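Appendix B. Extra example for self-study. Work through it before the problem class; the solution is given directly after the inputs so you can check yourself.
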Amino acid sequence: MNISKKISKQNLFIFISFALLFIVLSLFVPYFLTSYNIFNIIIRASIYGTMALGLTFVMITGGIDISLPTVMTAGTVVGVMHMAKTGNALIGCLLVVLVCLIAGAINAVSITVLNMPPLIVTLATQTVAIGFAVWYTNYLSITGIPKGLLSFFRSYIFSIPVYAIIFLIIIVIFQFILTKTIYGRWLYFIGQNINTAKVSGVPTSLIISTAYLISALTAAIAGIMLATQIGSAQPAMGRVSMVLDIISSVLIGGVSINGGKGTIIGAALGAVFIALISNVMNLIGLQFYTTLMIKGLIIILAIAFDSVRKR
Amino acid sequence: MSIEENLKLIEIKNIHKQFPGVYALNDVSITAYPGEVLGLVGVNGAGKSTLMNILGGILRPDSGHILIDGKPVEINSPRDSEKNSIAFIQQEIQFFFNMTVYENVFLMNLQDYRKYKYLPLLDKKELCKKTNEYLNMLGCKVDPNLKVGALHIGEQQMVQIARALAQGGKILLFDEPTSSLSLKEKEKLFEVIKNLKEKGDTIIFISHYLDEVQNICDRVVVMCDGKVSGEGLISDMSKERITSYMIPKEIKFKGVKSKVSEEVVLEVENLSGFKKPKNVTFKLHKGEVLGLWGLLGSGRTETIRTILGFDEAISGKVFFKEGNTLKEIKRKNLLKACGYITEDRHFNGLFLAMEIWKNITSSNLKKFASKFLSVLNTKQEKEEGLIYVKRLKVAASSQFSLTGQLSGGNQQKVVIGKWLSKETNILLLDEPTKGVDVGAKIEIQNLIRKLASDGTSCIVVSSEVEEIQHLCDNVIVMNEGNVVAYLSAEEMTTQRLIKECLGKG
Amino acid sequence: MPGKGLADMEKNIKEISLRRNNGLSMVDYAIYVVLIGLIIVYATLSPSFLTTRNIFGMLLNGSHLLILSIGMGFVLLTGLIDLSVGSIAYVSVVIAGTLMRDHGVSPVSGLLICLLVGMGLGLINGILIVKLKLNAILVTLAMMIGLRGVGHQITKSLIIELDQSLQFVIIHTVGGIPIMVILVIALIIIAQIVLSQTIFGKYVTAIGCNEKAANNLGINTDFIKIIILLISGILAAMAGFYSSANLGTCLQTMGDGWEFQAISIAVLGGVSLSGGVGKIFPGVFIGFLVMVIIENGLALLGTTFYLLPIIRGLVIFLAMFADSLRVKRAQKIMSY
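Solution. Structure tokens for the complete assembly:
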């Protein structure tokens, strides 16, 4: 199949604006083009981007999951605590995945079996998750990640950071699933018209549940990546404001809140774009909370632009 | 007539209204006078409801004029309609189910019921009192404080009528008001209509029940295929004459000889849902087109949905032919073996934002996927899309067109193509030609007959007499969720069909 | 037909019971049972539970949530949602507090300014969601996080001390009851009267029930929805002002998680997430009591503070579960 057909108009648009922005920034912002800075952007994009990809699955079905950052925190603190105590990196990572999947399962069951609105369910999960993380760690940060794991994640393969490689692998796998498999097609069906999907024989409850499980899984992966990057696990690692970054990424990438639209590549590009913007705001010395203001504005502009485009 | 001409209350002149693919109203002109009850009859799709929706401000005509008391008026919204003294009692109940009766009746006129002159508080006592007045007029004894959702459907209809009465208004439009009423309630309604008539109001009364039309109406207008096909004083219009105006004269139908075998492919036994269906039993034979006939609300769609497992059944069994024997089957599994063309393609029949080929393959993706990992062969899918676009003559530039941009008839063809692609032996079609233009309608009907003669067994739900008569080998008549009659081809006369579905209500 | 008599009889019984209960069911009464149960349990377990000091303390410390929940109740009734209430509260108090502290604005004017800011922010929500037709979840989520940024920007992430004189509503009592409690109960009653006895209230319920029909009938749904979001903003500002005055300072974390608690209280109180169903009094008020009693009781029993979010999460899951049962029943009854 033609590669040019794969890159849709929207993605092209993001890519071009991104390239232009990149050029402008390299010229005008000091320290932008240093390898340390580019590395930061890549790391940030990979970690947030992984969660954005999970969110994409959920949003294509027409749902939403705002619990990702805090669920990531909850899982990671449990896993890292174990790793720190026993030195077993593998079991630790599995624990991260397990805790996140439990949260994902709670979301899935509440939404499909109990018919509760996804926003409120994930809002509840978010509250419980961060409460749990704080309780579990007593506000302390947990260090002691096995050196082997740290060095693996912080290394490079063919001069590309491992974080980016993991992100790329996930992009490839998810893109494949969404565009080439029955499961992926079903996700779009559910998002476009759940009633027609049911009539067409799609097991809607099952498929929607898996979307929430997948997003929880991406939270786990992002958590492991983040923990190895900062060297510890702590309740503050997954702030609620991360949700803004993740949602902006998918919105810019063309995913619609109403479901049925969006691509993995778009979301990934969106994540890189947002990572770039966050990085630049840091470089020019904006405070964290100022960046929140700007990000809030970006989301509103993004949805306004999107809705104007539809008409 | 010349004296009355000066007193024309409402005049509809040369109204045209088109929907994509359907010419709903074609140069319709109707006049109604004060103090008369005008009956409006016609088969489904003749244009009656469209016309009423225009008067009610829900739809706007493409061209034409409406004059009230001799003055031209513009009705662009339900509010405008109300301002022009038109009260529209719709066929489908337009309610706020969680709100009380008195709230529903007076929602638009609450300003008139303030308790104190300057405070915005409502006078609940007065509201209830007035509500009771209107309900008593209709012989309805419902506590105004009850939530509308808790009422029986006949009572809900009464509340809807009470709302129209409370609005005031000189012109009342009743669209199938008696379909859910008991005999007593109907009598009361007719009394009310007579009183309104004497008051000088104009009533336009749409009904399928020709008996009632003859009972209550002064004049009757018959519509057919979007045109006025006949009108006259009720004394001049016998039931037979009315019926003759209702049925389109040109029928270019190409009947294909049916080849119904004795082999039973599907059997339904004592199937009951929560409200409808009730104890439905029938057999479907190979190559048969079995009709499900009845009025709106008779439970035909519910029956199909219950058979396929979309609605819960509280009793009954379904048997499906696998191999050589009829085995009992779990209803949810039945969907895998059947094709289901739903009543409302926009609601649950199509993915409007997707291309035609994606819709065509949507019910049977397994056919185009690899065994391992379920990878889809989109090239094959697109070819399938093209095959059905050609076979069903879908008027689109290619299989890549978006389904939402097609006309009604072509959209319906895509729906049919979707299920044909699955190559099932049983097809369940719920109003397959609803909202479809005449040309596509005939194509679809021919297609169904051809499929049947090739061995596919079909169940067709329809509300049109001619469609039932020409498509079906046998027909089941339903009323209030029950099967009330089983007619074979010879017994399917228009009179018999209409008689059976009206039941003893 | 055999068995027909039985079916008719069943149908009659169902009809009669529906009329008597007017569509209500066991689920709607359950919350009262829970409330009484909780009171009994805590009173038994902890001697200091039923003291006036504790009760008033409980009500005073939770008043901000009650005010917030009234606003959230109205928002949910129209079928919308407002996740930004916590941040609106924060920004409004920050602006008013800064003006009071640095520019000698009087406490009364400070309150007015606070409410005005809240109203303005609510208006922004209204325009974005209703006029521009943007998605309510995304807009209020963006506002929730973005406005917190604004607040920090103004305060440079510091706390703001508030004038002691503002605490008079808490300290002073009338007939032994703190003025604030009286004010808040009055607010609840007024809100309920507005909802159930005014044209505006009826329109709000109608929009939540069936917006399309409401539009068809000629109700100006856009206008009403904007007003509701405006009210939500004002009440959020009010809640923030009270909470800060109560504490004496405006913390940087004020308002954090308030939207979640407000939604929980509203849902507990019987306001349906799908719109059109629910009351302020007794509804939201009872939800508030249940929520506040649970937390107060747990605190008295010495439960660790960390468990609170988990308990809150559980509470809302249960509340939503009950709500979904109610919706299922309504669907069964409707197509009778």
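Self-check: Residues 9-310 of chain A form a domain with the ABC transporter involved in vitamin B12 uptake, BtuC fold (CATH 1.10.3470). If your reasoning did not lead you there, revisit section 3.
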